[in-house]
Amino acid sequence: MPYPPRPYVLSLAGFDPSAGAGLLADCKTFEQRGVYGFGVCTALTVQSDVQFERVQWVPLADIRAQAKPLLERFGVGWAKIGLVENLTKLPELLDWLRAQSPTIGVVWDPVLKASAGYDFHTGPAPELVRQLCTGLALLTPNQPEMRRLWPAAATAEAAAATVSAYCPVLLKGGHAEGSEATDVLYQNGQEVARFTTPRLPHGEKHGSGCVLSAAIVAGLARGESLVEACRSGKAYTARVLASNESLLGYHFHNQNDANQ
């Protein structure tokens, strides 16, 4: 019996051979969250869940070439951007995406450092952050990334509130302390919602930020509000974190799981 049509979404991200992060993690998440995911490779990495050796960047022209036939053929309503080589060229990519699909919603997960231990980017200039964030559907930094994106603020929370004047910001709480992990959504300079799950003793997972942002994109593509998508994305990610005690989380394999 055929399944009903699924919304189309696009991930522009790096290829992680361990499949914990990047394109492979995004597409696993998309599938289980009930959307059809396309993948455009922005970087080829040599890494595992605990070791990062090197990266080979995909030129911007090749990124566009990968995405163009997909955007021409399919009604892609949402895109997630992860690892990119040069943040100063990201506005050009964003402009190009919007020229191809004027109504596309974009979520940026700012991958500035690999969890296996490699710095991709130093902090961009404030004017570049304003340019990048203006018009985004959501920015999903963890606390160190938020501090790096807006170092003038005294705390990650203050930085998120400031940047949320340009786009909504979901500040991830995985790097904080305490028995609970709380992500906070900011819009227009104000905190608007909190999403809390218990902090698990073996809950650290390689690529968990990629899974969360991909799960949120899937929720948005399925018609959820931003708050609903953040809540359902957080719940899905929590299940991946609880799936086993290794650094590589398991996704789930039936439609009931996908819709939770």
Index terms:
single chain, 260 residues, six-stranded mixed beta sheet, 36% helix, globular
Describe this structure in words.
The chain has about 260 residues and is an alpha/beta fold. It has one domain (about 10-245): UDP-N-acetylmuramoyl-L-alanine:D-glutamate ligase, CATH 3.40.1190. It is about 35% helix and about 25% strand. It is built from nine helices and eleven strands. It has helices spanning about 20-30, 60-75, 90-100, 125-135, 145-150, 155-165, 210-220, 225-240, 255-260, and strands at about 10-15, 35-45, 50-55, 75-80, 105-110, 115, 120, 140, 170, 180-185, 190-200. Strands 3-2-1-4-5-8 form a six-stranded mixed β-sheet. The chain has a three-stranded antiparallel β-sheet with strand order 9-10-11, with helices on both faces. Helix 3 links the parallel strand 4 and strand 5 (about 105-110). Helix 1 (about 20-30) crosses helix 7, helix 2 runs parallel beside helix 3 (about 90-100) and helix 7 (about 210-220) packs antiparallel against helix 8. It is globular, with a radius of gyration of 17 Å. The two termini are about 20 Å apart. The model has no long low-confidence stretch (mean pLDDT about 90). GO terms for molecular function: kinase activity. Keywords: Kinase, Transferase.
Largest sheet properties: 6 strands, mixed
Which range does the strand content fall in? 15-25%
Number of strands: 11
CATH topology: UDP-N-acetylmuramoyl-L-alanine:D-glutamate ligase
CATH architecture designation: 3-Layer(aba) Sandwich
Percentage of residues in helical conformation: 25-40%
Number of domains: 1
* Number of helical stretches of at least 4 residues: 9
- Mean pLDDT reading: 92
Q: Structural class of the secondary elements?
A: alpha/beta
Spatial shape: globular
Distance between the termini: 22 Å
Computed Rg:
17 Å
Q: What order do the helices and strands follow?
A: EHEEHEHEEEHEHHEEEHHH
Can you say what the CATH homologous superfamily is? Ribokinase
State the low-pLDDT regions, or none: none
CATH level 1 class label: Alpha Beta
Task: Give the spatial strand order of the biggest sheet.
Answer: 3-2-1-4-5-8
